[in-house]
Write a structure and sequence with these properties.
The structure holds 2 protein chains of 2 kinds.
Chain A: E1 4-9, E2 11-12, E3 15-16, H1 18-34, E4 38-44, H2 53-57, E5 62-67, H3 76-88, E6 92-98, H4 101-114, E7 118-122, E8 124-128, E9 131-138, E10 143-149, E11 154-158, E12 173-176, E13 189-195, E14 208-212, H5 222-232, E15 235-239, H6 241-245, E16 266-270, H7 276-282, E17 287-292, H8 299-302, E18 305-308, H9 311-327
Parallel strand pairs in A: 1-4, 1-6, 4-5, 5-12, 6-11, 7-11, 14-15, 14-16, 16-17, 17-18
Antiparallel strand pairs in A: 2-3, 8-9, 9-10
Helix pairs in contact in A: 3-4, 5-9
Chain B: E1 2-6, E2 9-11, E3 33-35, H1 37-53, E4 57-64, H2 68-78, E5 82-87, H3 95-106, E6 113-117, H4 128-136, E7 140-150, E8 153-160, E9 163-170, E10 173-177, H5 189-195, E11 200-204, E12 212-218, E13 228-231, H6 236-245
Parallel strand pairs in B: 1-4, 1-6, 4-5, 5-11, 6-10, 7-10
Antiparallel strand pairs in B: 2-3, 7-8, 8-9
Helix pairs in contact in B: 2-5, 3-4
The chains are: A alpha/beta, B alpha/beta.
Chain lengths: 329, 250
C-alpha cells in the first residue's frame, strides 16, 4: 500500500529556496493522512547535501540528495527522470511541488512520465479516502475550483505562499540518490542563471507590495514608489501593464492578468486606476490601500483605505509617516 | 520550418462570472470568447518566425466542442496556414488527457517546433505544454519570455523569481510562451476573408480516461466595499493609524 509522499525541495545557486519548506509541509499533511513518511528530494552541485537539515525541520523523514556538477543550474530532464523513476519504484501515494517558475516547469514533466494528471497551483490540498482534493483559483482568481484527483500517485503543485511552512522538526535520514543516466547529457541546458538584484524582494515573497501606475505621470516619479517601499523595509515594487509597456519598469514587475498574481498582506496602489486586468493580479491581497486623483477610479471599489488626491504630494508624506512609525517601534 | 501552435478558446475575463446551475462550471450566458492570451502570443511568435524565414507553415490546433472552430478561424485570420480541430463534447479539466490527445495528433506531424501559451487564462494549470513534450519525447522549455530559433537549435530566456535563466535546446522542441515574446496582431479584413477558405480539418479527440475533474466551482468571498478615508496629504495620519491599529501591517 502506497503511503509515502515525495516532496521536491527547490534549490537555486546552491541554496534551498523558501518554497522547499512549503512543498515539504504540504507533503507532511498528506503523508500524515496516508500514514506514511515524507521523502524530500534536494539536488544541486556537490555540497548541496549539507543543506538537507533544513528539510528535516519542516517535516521530512528522509532527505534524498542528488549531487552532480551538472545539477548546479536547474536541470529539468535529469530531475524529472529521477523523480519519476523513484516514484515508479513504488510506495508513493503523492508527489508535491510548489508552482514556482521551476516547479511549473518540472511538475508537469513528472506527471506525464508517470501517466497521470497534475493538480496545479493549489491553494489547499487534502487526502480523503481514494482521492486528493484541492482548491485552485481559475479565471484570473475570479472563481475558485475544487479539483478532485482520482489518479495514483497524486501529483500536485502548491501556489507559492499558500502553505505556511510549518516547524515540524525531526531527525531526517539522509540518503544519496542515484541519477538515471548522465545529467550532462540533458538536451535542454541552462547556460546561465542571471541573478536579479539580490537585495530586492521578489513580488511573490514580499509581505508588502507598493505598486505604481500611469498616475505617476513620468518614469522618474517611480522613485516615490521605491522610497515608500524602502520605508516599509519589507516591500517589493510592482507596476501596471501600462507602465511596463511604456518601459518605465521591466516586464517582470507587471502585476495583473498576464503578469504576476500576488496576495501580500498589504498592497499599496499608487496612481493606479484599477483596470480589471490589474485587479485580477492583486484582488486577493489582504489589505489594499489606493491613492489616486480620481475618486471614481475602480481601484477605490476594492481598496480598504483610499485617499483621493495628487500622488506626487501624498506619497512622500506617507513615506515620511511610515518612517516615523517604524522609528517609534 | 513547420510550426504547430496549440491554442484554447476561453471566455474574456473582464466580466463578473456566475456559477452555472450544475455547480461545476461558470454560467456561459452572455460570455464573449477569444483565443487565450498567452496562446495569442504563441501564434504571433510562430507567424513572425515564418515571415522572417520567408518559408514554412503554421498549423493551429485546438481541442473542444464545435465552438472552438471560431478560435481556429481567428488564428487563421492572423495568418496561420491551416487548422486542426480535435473534437470533444467539452474540454476536460484533466491536463494529461488533453496532452495525450494533442500528442496523438502531433506525433506524426513532422513539426520542427511546437508552441503553446504558458498557461490558459481560464484553467491556469500551465501543464499541457510540458506534458505533451514528455509524451512526444521532445525537449521542452516552459514559459519562455524570449525565443530565438536558428540553425536547428533554439535559445530562450525564462523569468524566475528575482532572476532569469538562459537556455539552449535542439529542435524539434516544445516551447510554451510567456508575455514579452510577441504582441499579437489584429486580423486584417483581408486576413479574415482569406481565413474562410483555409483548410480546417476535424478529427475526434483521443482523450482516454479522465482522472481529474472540477467537483465544485464557487465565487471567492466578496471583498468588503471600498472606503475612501480622506483627501490629500491631510488623510495620511489617519491612513497610518488604520494600518497600525486595524490592518496591523505597520
Amino acid at each position: 500500500m502506497a503511503t509515502h509522499v515525495l516532496a521536491f525541495a527547490e534549490t537555486r545557486s546552491g541554496d534551498v529556496r523558501k518554497v522547499a519548506s512549503e512543498a515539504v509541509t504540504a507533503a507532511r499533511a498528506l503523508a500524515d493522512a496516508a500514514g506514511g513518511e515524507v521523502h524530500a528530494v534536494i539536488a544541486g552541485a556537490p555540497g548541496i547535501a549539507g543543506k538537507a537539515d533544513a528539510l528535516g525541520r519542516s517535516g521530512a523523514d528522509v532527505v534524498i540528495t542528488l549531487e552532480h556538477p551538472a545539477l548546479a543550474d536547474y536541470n529539468p530532464e535529469a530531475l524529472a527522470s529521477f523523480i519519476a523513476e523513484r516514484v515508479k519504484a513504488g510506495g508513493y501515494r503523492a508527489v508535491t511541488f510548489v508552482a514556482s517558475a521551476q516547479g511549473k516547469d518540472l511538475a508537469p514533466r513528472v506527471a506525464a512520465k508517470l501517466g497521470v494528471p497534475l493538480a496545479s497551483d493549489l491553494t489547499s490540498v487534502k487526502l480523503t479516502g481514494d482521492t486528493v482534493v484541492g482548491t485552485h483559483p481559475v479565471n484570473t482568481g475570479k472563481v475558485i475550483a475544487t479539483v478532485t484527483l482520482s489518479a495514483t500517485p497524486a501529483v500536485v503543485s502548491m501556489r507559492p505562499g499558500a502553505i505556511t511552512a510549518a516547524d515540524n522538526p525531526r531527525q531526517a535520514r539522509i540518503e544519496a540518490g542515484t541519477l538515471v543516466g548522465d545529467p550532462s547529457a540533458s538536451r535542454v541546458k541552462v547556460t546561465q542563471t542571471v541573478a536579479g538584484n539580490t537585495a530586492k524582494l521578489d513580488l511573490g515573497d514580499a509581505p508588502i507590495i507598493v505598486s505604481g501606475g500611469r498616475g505617476l505621470r513620468a518614469a522618474e516619479n517611480f522613485k516615490l514608489v521605491e522610497d515608500l517601499a524602502a520605508a516599509f523595509g519589507n516591500a517589493a515594487v510592482g507596476a501596471t501593464r501600462a507602465v511596463t509597456d511604456d518601459g518605465w519598469r521591466p516586464h517582470s514587475d507587471q502585476i495583473g492578468q498576464t503578469g504576476r498574481q500576488v496576495s501580500p498582506n498589504l498592497y499599496v496602489a499608487v496612481g493606479i486606476s484599477g483596470a480589471i486586468q490589474h485587479l485580477a493580479g492583486m484582488r486577493t491581497s489582504k489589505t489594499i490601500v489606493a491613492i489616486n486623483k480620481d475618486k471614481e477610479a475602480p481601484i477605490f471599489k476594492v481598496a480598504d483605505y483610499g485617499i483621493v488626491g495628487d500622488v506626487l504630494e501624498i506619497v512622500p508624506a506617507l513615506t515620511a509617516a511610515v518612517k516615523q512609525a517604524k522609528a517609534s517601534h | 520550418m513547420k510550426i504547430a501552435v496549440c491554442i484554447k478558446r476561453v471566455p474574456e475575463m473582464d466580466v463578473r462570472f456566475k456559477i452555472a446551475s450544475n455547480g461545476v462550471g461558470v454560467d456561459e450566458t452572455g460570455l464573449k470568447w477569444d483565443i487565450s492570451d498567452f496562446d495569442g502570443y504563441a501564434v504571433e511568435a510562430a507567424l513572425q518566425m515564418i515571415e522572417k524565414l520567408g518559408t514554412g507553415e503554421v498549423v493551429v490546433i485546438t481541442l473542444g466542442p464545435d465552438s472552438a472552430q471560431e478560435t481556429l478561424r481567428k488564428a487563421l485570420s492572423m495568418g496561420a496556414t491551416r487548422a486542426v480541430h480535435l473534437k470533444a463534447d467539452a474540454i476536460p479539466f484533466d491536463n494529461f488527457a488533453i496532452a495525450r490527445a494533442l500528442a496523438a495528433e502531433l506525433q506524426s506531424g513532422g513539426y520542427d517546433l511546437i508552441l503553446f501559451g504558458k498557461m490558459s487564462i481560464d484553467s491556469s494549470n500551465a501543464a499541457v505544454g510540458p506534458m505533451t513534450a514528455e509524451l512526444l519525447g521532445m525537449p521542452c522549455v516552459a514559459a519562455a519570455s524570449k525565443l530565438d530559433i536558428a540553425g536547428g537549435k533554439g535559445t530562450a530566456r525564462r523569468e524566475l523569481e528575482g532572476a532569469a535563466e538562459l537556455l539552449e535546446f535542439p529542435l524539434p522542441a516544445v516551447v510554451t510562451i510567456d508575455e514579452g515574446v510577441a504582441r499579437p496582431r489584429y486580423p486584417s479584413l483581408k486576413g479574415i476573408m482569406a481565413a474562410k477558405k483555409k483548410p480546417l480539418e476535424v478529427k475526434p479527440a483521443q482523450l482516454g480516461d479522465v482522472r481529474m475533474t472540477v467537483t465544485t466551482m464557487a465565487l471567492p468571498p466578496e471583498r468588503p466595499a471600498g472606503r475612501i478615508i480622506g483627501e490629500g496629504v491631510a488623510a495620511v495620519p489617519e491612513l497610518v493609524r488604520l494600518l497600525q491599529t486595524e490592518a496591523k501591517v505597520l
